[in-house]
Design a protein that fits this description.
The chain is about 10% helix and about 45% strand. Strands 1, 2, 7, 8, 9, 12 and 13 form a seven-stranded mixed sheet that branches. The chain has one helix and 15 strands. It has one domain.
Amino acid sequence: MTRMTVRNKCVAAVAVAVALAGVPGVAQAQAQFAASAHRQSGEAASHAAGAVRVVAPGERVRAAAGVELWLTAEGKHWSTPETGEQFRSVVDGNIDLSTPGIGLTAEPVGDRYFLSGVYVAGQSTVRVVVRTSDGKVTASAVRLPGTPGWGVWYADVPLHDSLGVDSVTLYDRHGKEIASLTPSRP
């Protein structure tokens, strides 16, 4: 039996995540948000999926092929080749930062879906699991330094007609579910 390297595990986790998230017609389904991401350089992922990476405000993370993600005190920013720069505020009053919650945005990027969302988890260390019609994927997560109480999660999955997102669930460091989102299907 061979050992998988951390990089191979990251690649496998991203491949699984991609297989779970292709919901045609679900361009954006936003609820309360959750964030979980991992640190990636312009090359390969340096942390395994499921690990929360602390990033500096404005620090760009390569979240998927052609997709960059960055955080500021005002919220989540991301850029895709198809849509350019986008923004989701955490300070405009549309997200309750006092209650655990999770959100979802699903958008096609080439032959894949980029899934992401803001999460609110207070001071908890978190893990985000996306369940799709193909199985489940543990997402990556990022947050700002200190104790902002929110972060962003992301995953990249293959795009195909029969793929659907069944749920996105936020867990605390003890494995207890603290928030869940079940997107409506068209």
